[in-house]
């Protein structure tokens, strides 16, 4: 297919694009944000709320900045105070100069009197410009550090959430919104600084104004209210648009990732899935664009309304000033200063409103981020689990009459399951696809907590245990394992620190990974990805050997192996299964595999069918007695015989 064709199909939606989406019953609404309470809370934000929240937001952003880089924050604060003082000095000097120039007397005398003030004005202007440069410099230093620090807190909070959290309705949306909050944290600081800077200048302007005539100040503040209301409304519209489109934007990100990155890139090309997904991407992007444009249009109209109202109100203030002058309530010299002070104060108030509205919008996101840090959207493990630790490595892992249902699932994945694995034992879980084997293994590991019933490690249930302490006793080979773009050594030690070459090589020997070492450019220090210079990509089976090595290297009491040899060649698989008995000497091993000939190594085989245990026994027993195991086993034997290989 030519790219022009692909483009045409992608835009027209047929046959790869929209028509398929509709046929499959996929609609944009599926990615809509649905947390009504959150939308409602956002929609209720008013100018009053903004005014009340502003000081707290400024304090929060300063605290965050302070925790990240004290020197830069102190420098920024000093600059803002300096800016305010210089603005006040400049303003007083301007007022004094105008007074001096328009007073009666000899012009040379008047100029001589004004000269020192002109020097002050020049110095204040120059110094303010200098402080502006320092502020830009310090902000540039603070910004990236603050952004990275906020990102790290998000990662920590996400890792501290229940592993089942991703299944909870709204969790992923909330995570995205909170993540956005983490990313805009530096904006919060920058906007808070703008507010502070404008406040400093305003203080100078209003002080002068109040001295000149008390009525000017309240008038000025009143004049700015309509604009403030308009800006806050515009900020709210943009924030709500951000909330509403969060699910769709996440989908766009996922589509981009699948289309552009190497892992799924080959499939995308060979299956010609690109045009179909680009079509989907375009349609979804169009709906996000429409929502964002609408918000931008509404925001702009509100801005216009605010500016008009602000203009009218400003005209009223200027009219009041003229009236004060015309009626003789203010003399002409003071009037000159008042014009300048009024101009300065008006600009500052507008600056506060503008940055304040942006600050509040950013503040909503940052608030979302903070809420996520507090309890991971109600999913923090710290809130749902205990803090107990086991005095020693457990001897027995026991499942007692458990049910498990994933959030949002129509039925239980496991019902009434009881099982025990002891140290020194190999227990195999077998059953057809979707029968609940992986779910059961996650429950035994304590990754999931049962919906009812309990999982006990010796005498403590997994919900009583501190999960981080408990997982020190677990080595897990999941079905979908992780390839880290790090060195072979890091992929094996996987965060356990430097355990030394001897331990790593011993694990490589046990898994058979040692055979691939001569082919690696830098041995254990080879970077296992070709995405970066000097890296080397492994084959699927080689990666599986690395993951087995990782599990063996952990020396944990409970070893869970979910399809551990699916990608291995016959010799490598044989090597693993013959070594298993030796590994089981001081471990409890839970083995999940569809290759039934391999489960002969197990002490006990547990057969699952639609979430229930339907058979349990030794390999010899189950291959003899009629039942699910024997029928699956016979099928594999026949297939093996027909293909001339082993099952
Ligand atoms: N994260 C999840 N969210 C919701 N449902 C899930 C999730 N993981 C599994 N399930 C459901 O739970 C049931 C059991 O799945 P499980 O992965 O435990 O089966 P399995 O026996 O390991 O299957 P397989 O042999 O295909 O690996 C299935 O119906 C599946 O749809």
From TrEMBL:
The chain crosses the membrane at residues 71-98, 118-138, 300-326, 332-353. Residues 1-22 are annotated as: Disordered. One of its GO terms (cellular component) is plasma membrane. It is a multi-pass membrane protein. GO terms for molecular function: ABC-type oligopeptide transporter activity; ATP binding; ATP hydrolysis activity. It comes from Streptomyces griseoloalbus. Residues 399-635 form the ABC transporter domain. This is ATP-binding cassette subfamily B protein. It is found in: Cell membrane. Residues 1-21 have a biased composition (Polar residues). Keywords: ATP-binding, Membrane, Nucleotide-binding, Transmembrane, Transmembrane helix.
């Amino acid at each position: 297919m030519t790219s022009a064709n692909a483009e045409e199909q992608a835009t027209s939606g047929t046959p790869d694009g929209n028509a398929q989406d509709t046929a499959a019953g996929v609609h944009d609404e599926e990615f809509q944000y649905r947390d009504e309470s959150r939308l409602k809370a956002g929609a209720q934000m008013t100018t009053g709320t903004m005014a009340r929240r502003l000081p707290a937001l400024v304090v929060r952003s300063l605290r965050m900045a302070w925790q990240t880089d004290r020197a830069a924050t102190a420098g920024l604060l000093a600059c803002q105070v300096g800016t305010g003082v210089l603005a006040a000095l400049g303003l007083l000097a301007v007022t004094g100069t105008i007074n001096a120039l328009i007073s009666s007397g000899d012009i040379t005398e008047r100029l001589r009197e004004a000269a020192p003030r002109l020097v002050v004005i020049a110095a204040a202007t120059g110094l303010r410009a200098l402080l502006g440069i320092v502020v830009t410099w310090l902000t540039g230093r603070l910004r990236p550090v603050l952004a990275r620090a906020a990102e790290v807190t998000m990662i920590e909070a996400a890792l501290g959430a229940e592993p089942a959290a991703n299944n909870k309705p709204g969790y992923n949306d909330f995570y995205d919104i909170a993540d956005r909050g983490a990313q805009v944290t530096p904006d919060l600081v920058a906007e808070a600084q703008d507010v502070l800077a404008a406040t400093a200048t305003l203080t100078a302007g209003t002080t002068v104004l109040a001295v000149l005539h008390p009525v000017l100040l309240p008038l000025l503040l009143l004049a700015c209210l309509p604009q403030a209301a308009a800006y806050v409304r515009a900020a709210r519209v943009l924030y709500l648009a951000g909330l509403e489109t969060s699910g769709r934007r996440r989908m766009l990100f996922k589509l981009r990732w699948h289309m552009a990155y190497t892992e799924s890139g080959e499939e995308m090309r060979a299956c010609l899935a690109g045009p179909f997904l680009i079509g989907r991407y375009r349609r979804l992007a169009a709906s996000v664009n429409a929502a964002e444009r609408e918000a931008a249009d509404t925001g702009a109209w509100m801005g216009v309304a605010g500016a008009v109202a602000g203009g009218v109100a400003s005209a009223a203030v200027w009219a009041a000033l003229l009236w004060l002058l015309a009626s003789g309530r203010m003399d002409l010299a003071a009037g000159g200063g008042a014009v300048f002070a009024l101009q300065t104060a008006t600009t500052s108030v507008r600056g506060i409103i503008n940055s304040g509205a942006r600050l509040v919008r950013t503040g909503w996101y940052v608030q979302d981020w903070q809420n996520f840090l507090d309890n991971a959207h109600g999913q923090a493990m710290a809130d749902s689990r205990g803090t107990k630790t086991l005095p020693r490595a457990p001897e027995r892992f026991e499942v007692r009459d458990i049910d498990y249902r994933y959030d949002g699932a129509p039925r239980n994945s496991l019902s009434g399951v009881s099982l025990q694995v002891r140290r020194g034992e190999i227990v195999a879980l077998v059953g057809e696809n979707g029968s609940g084997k992986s779910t059961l293994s996650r429950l035994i590991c304590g990754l999931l907590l049962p919906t009812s019933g309990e999982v006990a490690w010796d005498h403590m249930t997994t919900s009583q245990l501190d999960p981080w302490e408990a997982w020190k006793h677990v080595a897990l080979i999941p079905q979908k394992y992780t390839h880290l773009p790090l060195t072979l050594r890091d992929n094996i030690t996987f965060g356990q620190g430097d355990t030394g070459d001897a331990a790593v090589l011993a694990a490589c020997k046990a898994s058979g990974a040692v055979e691939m070492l001569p082919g690696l450019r830098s041995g254990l220090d080879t970077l296992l990805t070709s995405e970066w210079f000097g890296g080397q990509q492994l084959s699927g089976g080689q990666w599986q050997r690395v993951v087995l090595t990782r599990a063996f290297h952990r020396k944990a009491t409970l070893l869970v192996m979910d399809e551990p040899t699916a990608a291995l060649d016959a010799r490598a698989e044989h090597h693993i299964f013959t070594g298993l008995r030796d590994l089981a000497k001081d471990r409890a091993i839970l083995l999940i595999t569809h290759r039934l000939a391999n489960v002969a190594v197990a002490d006990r085989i547990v057969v699952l069918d639609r979430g229930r245990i339907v058979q349990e026994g030794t390999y010899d027993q189950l291959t003899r007695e009629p039942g699910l195991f024997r029928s699956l086993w016979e099928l594999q034997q026949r297939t093996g015989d027909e293909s001339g290989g082993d099952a």
